[in-house]
């Protein structure tokens, strides 16, 4: 089998495995709806009130997308690796031509498709429920590579977590412990001016910051999104490589 055929075969198997988990399917697409309804429709933004949600509603579209790009790959890939370890699946995969990089690539592609659909749903809900105005220009299509690279990056990090955690419960605990600080300290919902001045430079250490900045430039503020996309691409390659190395080697 060629590389493309091996990746396609694992992709199809992983895709059908996802579809069989109806609860996972439901919450993957229901989660974005909850986010938009709670923060966009119930809490709402107060552009002149100060504090949290004091920016126009378009400002927070990047934050909504960041939630699904961050949480879903971390938990899904991490749990999958932990489950494979417990079921000795990697020992069986070692007898096939599928490499660790190909395995992670196939599962990353599944997550890109799933989260891409969830992100599309989230954008539609943002426009319909909150009345946010999303620019309809050719440049807006750059959201697609931002989502794809962000998902790939956090699939790599999820692979690392799944490889070092001792169980699926450990993966969920570790994923949440990493994801929650990243979510609120990456220019998503909390603006830099609400943070201590000495902490603001640390925002550049979060890979999610570059996703949020780039998507916000496309959907709200304008400005340079290419630099953020380039940085995100470099980080995605690095985290994917780290995830590949971390996957248990049994051959």
What does this structure look like?
By secondary structure, the protein is mostly helical. It has one domain. It contains nine helices and no strands. α2 packs parallel to α5 and α3 (61-86) runs antiparallel to α8 (207-221). The radius of gyration is 18 Å and the shape is globular. The mean pLDDT is 86. Residues 23-250 form the ABC transmembrane type-2 domain. This is ABC transporter permease. Keywords: Membrane, Transmembrane, Transmembrane helix.
Helix/strand layout:
Blueprint (H helix, E strand, L loop, with lengths): L2 H18 L1 H22 L17 H26 L2 H5 L6 H30 L13 H22 L3 H17 L22 H15 L4 H21 L5
Helix pairs in contact: 1-5, 2-3, 2-5, 3-5, 3-6, 3-7, 3-8, 5-6, 5-9, 6-8, 6-9, 8-9
Beta-strand content estimate: under 5%
Q: Report the total helices.
A: 9
- Number of DSSP strands? 0
> Could you tell me how far the N terminus lies from the C terminus, measured between alpha carbons in angstroms?
19 Å
Average pLDDT, rounded to a whole number, is 86
How many domains? The number is 1
- Secondary-structure-derived class: mainly alpha
Helix content: over 70%
Q: What would you report as the Rg, rounded to the nearest angstrom?
A: 18 Å
Main sheet makeup: none
SSE series: HHHHHHHHH
> How would the global form be characterised?
globular
Note poorly predicted spans.
Answer: none
């Amino acid at each position: 089998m060629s590389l493309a055929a091996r990746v396609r075969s694992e992709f199809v198997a992983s895709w059908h495995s996802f579809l069989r988990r109806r609860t996972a399917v439901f919450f993957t697409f229901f989660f974005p709806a909850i986010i938009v309804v709670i923060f966009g429709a119930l809490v709402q933004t107060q552009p002149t009130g100060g504090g949290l949600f004091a920016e126009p509603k378009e400002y927070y579209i990047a934050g909504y997308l960041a939630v699904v790009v961050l949480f879903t790959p971390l938990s899904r890939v991490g749990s999958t690796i932990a489950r494979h370890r417990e079921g000795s699946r990697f020992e069986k995969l070692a007898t096939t031509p599928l490499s660790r990089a190909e395995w992670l690539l196939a599962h990353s592609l599944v997550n890109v498709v799933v989260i891409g659909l969830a992100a599309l749903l989230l954008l539609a809900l943002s426009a319909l429920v909150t009345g946010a105005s999303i620019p309809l220009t050719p440049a807006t299509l750059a959201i697609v590579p931002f989502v794809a690279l962000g998902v790939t990056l956090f699939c790599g990090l999820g692979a690392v977590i799944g490889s070092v955690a001792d169980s699926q419960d450990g993966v969920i605990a570790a994923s949440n412990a990493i994801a929650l600080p990243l979510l609120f300290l990456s220019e998503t919902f909390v603006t830099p001016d609400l943070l201590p001045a000495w902490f603001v430079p640390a925002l550049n250490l979060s890979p999610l910051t570059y996703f949020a900045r780039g998507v916000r430039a496309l959907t709200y503020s304008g400005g340079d999104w290419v630099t953020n996309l380039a940085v995100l691409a470099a980080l995605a390659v690095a985290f994917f490589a780290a995830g590949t190395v971390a996957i248990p080697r049994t051959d």
